[in-house]
Amino acid sequence: MSHQQALTKYIAAFITELVKNGVEDVVVSPGSRSTPMAMVMAEHPDLQVHIHVDERSAAFFALGMAKGTKRPVAILCTSGTAAANYYPAIIEAFYSRVPLLVFTADRPHELRDIGAPQAIDQIQMYGKNVKWFAEMAPPENAASMINYVRTTAVRAVATAKRNPAGPVHLNFPFREPLIPDLNDPEIFHSSSREEKYMTVSSSFLTVDDARFDTMAQTVSTYKKGLIICGPMDDADLSHKIVELGKVLQFPIIADPLSQLRSGRHEQSQIIDAYDAILKSETAKVELQPELIIRFGAMPVSKPLLLFMKQYPETRQLIVDGGGGFRDPSLLSTDMIYCDEKQFCEELTLRANARQENDYLTLWQDVNDVAKSEMVKVLEIEQLNEGKIFAQLGQLLPEEATIFVGNSMPIRDLDSFYFGNNKSMRILGNRGANGIDGTISTALGVAMHAQPLYLIVGDLTFFHDLNGLIASKLYHIPITVIVINNNGGGIFSFLPQSEHPKHFELLFGTPLNIDFSHSVTMFGGDYIKVEDWQQFSEAIETETSHLKVIEVMTNRENNVREHRNLWESVSREIDKRIKDED
Amino acid sequence: MSHQQALTKYIAAFITELVKNGVEDVVVSPGSRSTPMAMVMAEHPDLQVHIHVDERSAAFFALGMAKGTKRPVAILCTSGTAAANYYPAIIEAFYSRVPLLVFTADRPHELRDIGAPQAIDQIQMYGKNVKWFAEMAPPENAASMINYVRTTAVRAVATAKRNPAGPVHLNFPFREPLIPDLNDPEIFHSSSREEKYMTVSSSFLTVDDARFDTMAQTVSTYKKGLIICGPMDDADLSHKIVELGKVLQFPIIADPLSQLRSGRHEQSQIIDAYDAILKSETAKVELQPELIIRFGAMPVSKPLLLFMKQYPETRQLIVDGGGGFRDPSLLSTDMIYCDEKQFCEELTLRANARQENDYLTLWQDVNDVAKSEMVKVLEIEQLNEGKIFAQLGQLLPEEATIFVGNSMPIRDLDSFYFGNNKSMRILGNRGANGIDGTISTALGVAMHAQPLYLIVGDLTFFHDLNGLIASKLYHIPITVIVINNNGGGIFSFLPQSEHPKHFELLFGTPLNIDFSHSVTMFGGDYIKVEDWQQFSEAIETETSHLKVIEVMTNRENNVREHRNLWESVSREIDKRIKDED
């Protein structure tokens, strides 16, 4: 059998097995060394090949698809720095637990470390940021090697998917000639084990009954209990948490990415204004908790973290079915490695049901007070940042997906986006919280989730501007709201802003560019809105491709407006609590 | 002493020492965790701080400055994926031996691996692609810690500079509060060792006299000897190689990045059409070498590599003062770790001088034949790719710097850019040969080398389009020639092109975008030339900022024209050699 046929059989066996294990999408960046795999992938009838010239955007685009569909998505590139461009998205996938299959083509062993062109050391090049790395054997067609490559495909998919999901890296050495033999009509046919080569059981972490009993007893003991939900994306889990909350009569603090602020579930116990509430010293004293049960990653709110740190004696349970250690407060008392849904079910059954709870009522009261102040942002007539987020619940349609940028937008969403009964899904890149790759990630999500609204600041928009090309090439509809305060708005809220000497150089960083040019280049509609009427209209008009709505704001006004609102929340909470005394 | 003062003293001592050791430029990407170092850097009167929002472009921009000036340049970013965006440029710096100081801010130890925001594992995150990694101690002001941080600064600079130069990574854990104390006027004053803390000797690799004698004897033995010069950038070395070549009467094969094709040195022995020559089977037979002496990295020419491989018995000396192993032919017989200039001097002294050499004459003859065919590209009236490169020597001014993109442009430069007496410097990213970061690298070079001409294909231009912002923000003049064949032109020369089924999807990859929008956004002049008259005018007009000249070409015509020229070179060589028989 020729080199070409062996190469083809080996790769085809691998691809076949990937597809049988649920991989539907691959993002390929053009290159020479990756030719055999790219061509076999393109040949497979059930694998969708997306081309992305910039590997950084390509990887984020794949991350978005994987995040949106919860299926592993593959990326493929050639040797050299191409592979290094994947690094930011791989890290994000690792920390946000998104299944990603990273395939890099490499020179074969005899062309490594000897100055051959485009040859770098790709062995474990992503360090600890992948769940599994394997240096693949050079392609061969012996039965044992076909078993090996099929096993590896099954294992790669299973490893990427297993909780905590994450990236897996396989490095493929390919020798020239690189052209596969696509003439064989049986290329994707396996002579043995025609279905999957093997299965990997879908398992989960759990604890024994005695431990469930103890935990149920514990949570029943405390009246001042809080459930805190960070970023998570499982509608089923959301419902089970709400049920547990109901039995315990605990308030449920819902991060904007917890999927608990909007949806058809019972909302009465959801606390969505905690970020503003916990800036009030009075509230922090009155609302002291005795017990905290945490689900999901750490919420974005800094006041919430400071509140938790203020009471180091609080019993704090962290439930993590992924077996991680997500406690930047360093104050947790019980780390519970157990499937979150099972935990909720078991405790809902075993805990002593309460009929009412003053602590919950107090939270509900101050939450209402805080919200009634925060919504006053809607009264501001000039364009401003908070009001954008306060209007989303009303303006966006049922089943919309919101993708929110890091830095200020996620914080403004936290501050101004309040509960509603629309089924909306809200996603962001909260693994490593970077501003990079945001457009590409959102477009990846948009591949399988429509309509999609991306909200970003101008620096984040700039960072991944080229990512917009996917919308043009693949006709992906997306509405992008760019909040343009000409620079790094978040720093105006930080202590840096009190040191004017180097502030504008190092932190303000105005770009002074007119994004309309770029939007036009990528075939999009660009709308710079001048007032709220135009904003609503721009949002509500349906789009079949790229639409960018730019809202110009002012960094200084923005800080002032935020602080005014937060101060009035604190003032009103003070009043309310003193009235009750 | 407060945390703030200790933080400031520690960082200021570090920065002071960097500057004393020759660091003049730092590229900072905005972020919060890096605040203390960014602010102290901005405060130092002798350190130039450049801001670049996109860390990928930032790192390439620094790489360009370091490449252009041969001085170490520093980059600084915040924690998280920001640091991962540096990876492509770090790899390029490692393989192309460019001194780069990579400073990443990190969360302190107590905030690592516990789900804190923007915290990833930054320890050795660039793997084997840096020369040295150090996890820095948390800032303290004890005398021993100031000695430590000053020593580390000296060592980092020395390590980055030492042959082979390369990147060094220091990871700095910073605790809040992050604001340094800039009120102290003595911040950059050292109480001890006011000059440099210490020096590191500037040493080089050498061999003993006996070995120089043996080598001189060896090279004198062979008449059919070839000197092959790959990418290198040292005018002094160029002259010494020419002198050695003269004594030995060996032809000097000069890669376009060897700095030997243009300049005021004696050019008679420089062979610049070898890429076309060595496509001729006749030439490959007639020109069989007995000895090869190689300097610099491996040249770009594939025909040259195949020619070397055709004669595995050739004695092949590789001279590498950096102690690497740059031999993808795997046929070298003598790896000589010796400073290249010293090697040339010693052998020039010790070797037996020849008066003439038939082998040289034959190379000179076929070189003339080949060139007289290749320059016929100038007769083609329609816009085409080869003619762009054939005109550069004439159109560009003395002291111009050319930065050439990878993929086709470097190969076309090899094919069509012939010797001339102008002092022009030609640079490219030939460490890992990526198409990423090319605009930013060129702009970095342009900071200290004017006028600068960048020549890239459309995919390379697209890959780093955002890098153009540095030209706008820092008013860096640059002339960019974009050869737009709407996709990956190089693949039309490769075997992939014979398999049309998936070709356009996977390799053609047309972007169909009009770059003029982007050029306008970044404040540049955009000129789409329609004929050669417009092309010359566009090149010759001086510019004080960004100028982009777009030349539209056609991938299929391009392959045909190249092949026609190469075939006529082979035909004419055949004729010449038969005439002589």
Report on the structure:
Two copies of one chain form a homodimer. The first copy, chain A, is α/β, with parallel strands linked by helices. Chain A folds into three domains: 3-173, Rossmann fold; 209-371, 3-Layer(aba) Sandwich (Rossmann fold), CATH 3.40.50.1220; 385-552, Rossmann fold. In chain A, the strands form three sheets. A six-stranded parallel beta sheet of chain A has the order 2-1-3-4-6-5, sandwiched between helices. In chain A, strands 9-8-7-10-11-12 form a six-stranded parallel beta sheet, sandwiched between helices. In chain A, helix 1 (3-20) packs parallel to helix 6 (143-161) and helix 7 crosses helix 12 (340-350). The N and C termini of chain A lie far apart (88 Å). The model of chain A has no long low-confidence stretch (mean pLDDT 96). Chains A and B meet through helix 2, helix 4, helix 5, helix 18 and helix 19 of A and helix 2, helix 4, helix 5, helix 18 and helix 19 of B.
